[in-house]
Amino acid sequence: MNSNRFINKKVQSIQLSPIRKFFNLVSEVPGAISLTIGQPDFNTPESIKSAGINAIRNNYTKYTHNQGREDLRQELGKYLKSHYNICYDYEKEITVTVGSGEAIDAVIRTIVDDNDEVLIPSPGYVAYGACVTLAGGIPVYVPLYFDDSFKLKADILEKYITRKTRALILSYPSNPTGATMDMDDLSGIADIAKKYDLFVISDEIYSE
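Structure (tokenized):
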């Protein structure tokens, strides 16, 4: 029986990433040090373990507000203000998700319609393309070059913009290259985004 007939065609089109293939291989080799995924080489700090255990013991296990706990969102707003001098309304502009992956997927599904194009610097995090595909969009990969220190260049980016372009995904510091972009670099990208009225999805998971 062909089981593929039960599977959404968009899901069928998504291939297992080479990084995950390597990770699976390395996990079978005793003593191997894996450099394939962004996983810390230290255990979860005791303070975090204790907080999780105490939450269970004190029955903090119920559904929360759809956006996440109000006090947590307030603290996140304070953190963004103190660290980056930017102000977000915790009631309207901050949402707590289960990891950055859920946030990226939710944003893409919210803003991308069928056949919209989303620009993705490449090499980049492998899940971006899959999220775009599942949302009905078309991932368009913009090449990054070693000679440019894997920085996204505004003149190269502009060549990939069409009437269907809806959004740009930025991931700096970059996964997997480790590249960073300074204010001058980002200003050029911001000018392009404004010129073509693009959404910019900034994945800053490695910013600290």
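The first helix runs from residue 9 to 12. The chain has a mean pLDDT of 91.
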